[in-house]
Task: structure prediction
Amino acid sequence: MNGRSAMAGGPPVFGLALLLCACMGLMTYAHMRWDDSLAAALTARDNLAQSRRYALLAQLDTERLLTGVTTIPRTRVIAHLDRALTIARDLRSGGGAIAGFSVRAPVAGDVAAAVDAYLAALADARAIMEHQLDGFEAGGSALLPAQRAVDGRAVALEDALLRHLAAQRRLLRQHDTATLALVAILGLLVLFYLYVAHRRRDTAVDALLGSESRLRAFVDSLPEVAFMLDRHGRYIESFGNAGALLASPAETLVGRTVEEVFPADVSSRFLAVIRQALARQRTQSYEYTLQLAGRQVVFDARVSPVPGSDRVVWLSWDVTARRRAEAHLHALGRLYNFLSQVNQTIVWSADEDDLFERICRVAIEFGAYRFAWVMRADEAGRLALRASAGSAVADRAQLVSASATDDGSVTAAVMRSGRLYRLSALDGDDAWMPAARAAGCSGYVGLPIRLDERVVAVLGLIAREVDPEDEDEARLLDEVMMDLSFAVRRLRDDRDRARAEQSARLLAAALRSTRDGVVVTDLDGVVVTVNEAFCELNGLDPGAAEGCKLVSLLDVEGADAVYADIDRALRGGGFWQGEVAARRRNGEAWSGWLSCASVRDDDGRATHRVSVLTDITQARRTEEMLHHLSQYDPLTDLPNRVLIQSRLTHAIDLASRRGTRVAVLFLDLDNFKTINDGLGHAAGDEVLAAVAQRLRARLRRQDTLGRQGSDEFVLLLENIDQPGEAALVAQGVFDNLSAPVRLASGQDIYLQVSIGISLYPDNGSSAEDLIRDADAAMYQAKRSGRNTLRFYTDAYTDEATQRLSLETGLRRALENDEFELRFQPLVDLSDGALIGAEVLVRLSAAASVRAGPSQFIPIMEANGLIVQLGERVRELACRQGRAWLDAGYRLGTLAVNMSVAEIRRGGLERRIERLLGDTGFPAALLELEVTESSLMEQGDEARHFLDAIKRLGLRMAIDDFGTGYSSLAYLKRLPVNKLKIDRSFICDLPGDASAVELVDTIITLGHKLGMSVLAEGVETEGQRDLLRAHGCDACQGYLYAEPLTAAEFERRFLRAAPRME
Amino acid sequence: MRTPYLLAGFIVILVALVLGRAIHDDPARAGDGSALRALYSIEPPFAYIDAHGRVTGEAPEMLRVLARRAGFGEVEFIHAEFGQLLHDLHVGRADIVASGLFVTPERAQRARFTRPTAQVSSALLVGAGNPLGLHGLDDIAAHPEAVLAVIDGAVELTVAQRVGVPPARIQRHGDATSAAVAVIEGRADALALSDVSLRHMLAVSGLTGVELAQPYRPPQREGRSEPGWPAFALRPQDEALARRIDEAMAGYLGSPAHRALVAAFGFGPDNLPVPAQK
Result:
């Protein structure tokens, strides 16, 4: 019953209680009314009776006294009357008590009046009696009537009382009637309530019965079993119709306890579950297994406490099939998991051993196998344990006890059968079986692993139990087997591929790293691949080569012939190799050794050509170096004796054809032995190297310096016209070696050299002769006092001596400023006006030597003094020019000759600029003259210089035009203002027609090139007229004046000409 | 479910108890200031009416004192015949009997006695000169013709019967005076009554021709004489009232006031129920 119905039951119950209370109240009220009435009636009647009795006793005593009885005390009459009076007064006052009734209800009305009358009668009688106590006899007669009056009053009182009581009774009847009616109503209400309650109960009972019958039907239709049990496990009731699931027939079950039905261990668990359900008042789930009719039945039970009792409802399902299915599913799930893990493992495994190790671990971990191992067969059919996992077989040696594929072991059987192999009992002879059995395992699964249709390994699995009939398991294990076979194959393939790749990588690396250029082309010569070395060798951009024709990449000499030859050789099935002279992209030549061969496919067809190109430039260089070493002295890198001989022979041939001379200078260091002995051979070598370097610096291109012996050098001078030239060179050598040689040790060595000179053809016609002669001349020189030279012919020696003295004189003259300027006027041919002067230089009379310019200029050019001289001349000229300009003369331009040696030395333009700045001579009035031949010889260097001169504002003239080999294109680019026709052309004028043509051509050419043309060496008027006729712009020569001193020039020309204002 | 029923039941029971108590509740018994109604039988000196018509005697006077002491108001005395005393008491016509009623086992079963107010011996009133030489009830029993007068209902009747006085020779009287007159007139040979009653009667009534039998052998019971112990009698259920009276008596009995009060009615020191107080 719940709270709601309890509340619903409240009001009726309380109503009923109230009704009961009301009834009780009414009854009590009625009782009290009746009690009061009864008490009033009783006491009134008793009081009346007492009063009358004692009044009668008093009357009796009185009468007896009156009759003379003396034994009666008179006081007794009084006492009787007193009592009658007292009681009568009680009656009047409504008091009184009798037998437990007591009342205090004053009377009224008739009764009161009757009582009063009675009391009055009694009082009268008492008064008479009291009065008679003194004199009894006197009043005796009076007492009797009084007492009769008392009687009469008493009767009247009784009547009144009875009437009063009757009225009381009527009233009580009415009360009772009302009470009865009330009680009847109450009773009806109660009955109605009972009826309603009854109806409700009936309805509830009907509902309960219906519910119970439904529940009963429901319960009876349960396919399972259910019980009601009490706390002690006693079966109260059994439900359900699955009798087969009962431990004993249902009818015998009720009344027994689980302890009687089941073994102690089972029943104790049942009781524990029951008590738990009761204690917690919650449904308990409980799963248990029973052996019923020889089969194991798994039950799932719900034990629910019956509320408000110590009973439980125990409902059990037979879940055997479900559990079995679940177990099977679980096993399959485990195998699926195993399969999945196997596949994962296959993916992750790096090699076969790794795979087997992982598979074994996975079998234990995910396949729930107790032990797993892999036996791998080698080529010879011997089995080896490759991996294992698990604990069922501790001794791994037992696994390999049988190690051949043809023995009786289970593994061998699996290998032979090549199929999934399952054993439900381990009853073979394998060594591992006892251990496995001891570990509680009875099942074996063998999975053959195939590689190329051959069983190569067996994965053995030991399980707690194996059902060989389980097709699902077989299917999954087959899948595992196939996956493993696939994995083994894949790993093998991977390994093979990895090896191939490795090999390819190595080859590629080799190709890359080799210093030989390797190029693979197809049959059309298109490059398929090429290595870096090839690109480097050919100066190609790496990456740009592929796809190009090999011909376009490899620039070899005679390419067509070479490639045709290669093509022929390869088509013939052979190969080709040979040296090629190739040229890199930057034009650098190199030598290569080219090997070409065909690359053939598996069918033997040529598909590509591979060419290997080895750079043999270095080898060639080495060869050349060896060659050089054989011809050159390693210390000085000068030609050795052999090469000197060879060169000399060659020079003699050349000179004999040209008709020129060859000079051989034999140089020997004086006292070299002293140096060598005193300072050591290293110092000696150092000295020799220094000497070689100094001498080489002075060489002309056509000259050859060689080292003949230890301290002997040979200098071959080709193209020699005069013996003096050789002497001049020899003098240069002396000068060159005059400065001390500073050794690495800081020591200065002063050298002296003796030079012997022989000349071809003067002294001999063979190289040996000339060298021998020169050697002899050198000995002569040594004998004559060292540091000197000797010609093999004495006359040449004299000449050389003279020339040397001239040079010395020139040097001194330069130092002493013994050069003088001469000015030869330049005349405008159109009007004969002075347009300037050419500045010429002469030795002054004060100089110690006498020589003309044609003599000293070549000497000074040869020894470099010309630079100093040029400087001097320009300075003097500019100062003189400035002086004249300051004097106000109209000077025109001053043309100064300039040696090409000055240009070659460099810095000339800066020096001229400085000079102009120092002297203040205007640049525009200074003209520099350079000979045509020297200008052409200098090339670009001269052009840069001329450009710089032009920027300074100086004028430029080409001297001796016509004697050199001018390139007109070159000439055109030069910033030259003037051509000076060489005097050799002029002197033949005007008679020589070809000279006239030539001069005319030069004039025309000069004009065409935008230059003015001046003729040198004009000596006759005919010449002048002709030149004028041909449009020559100006001339100079003896016709006008020889070179004049400054004073003379001023006198004759400047003063004559109009001065500038 | 049970709660409302329990509650309702409780209510019903409670109401029933209240109503039952109302039903059984007796009207308030006499309390402070209310009047006590006392029964008496004229039995001098225990109780009688004096010349002024006033009820007096050892018991009424003592009750008046005790009622005052116990806090009651006036005592209203109503007369009854001796034999009616206990009946009237019992039916409730009065609250207490104050008439020198002796404590006997028989009476003790019907009434609740207070402490004894006095100690009374029996005595034998005989004709002057004791013609039959009666000195005890056993003498009467032994005498073949001796008639014994007794007060109807008095203890002497029982004692006489016990000692073997044949009923035929026992003459019953309504009061002591009638019995004494019967001895004087010779209708009886002896009157057995308490010594104080007989002494008071002889002293007050002025009767002649009778005397107290001297010596007198009180009747023996188990070798001992049995003194009478007058006391107030109450209904057994009026225990509270009885205790009030008893308590009022405790300080009064044996006191000089008590002795003075009872001495007037012929009670000597030996009649005191307790040793006299100084």
User: Anything to note?
Assistant: The first helix of chain A runs from residue 3 to 66.
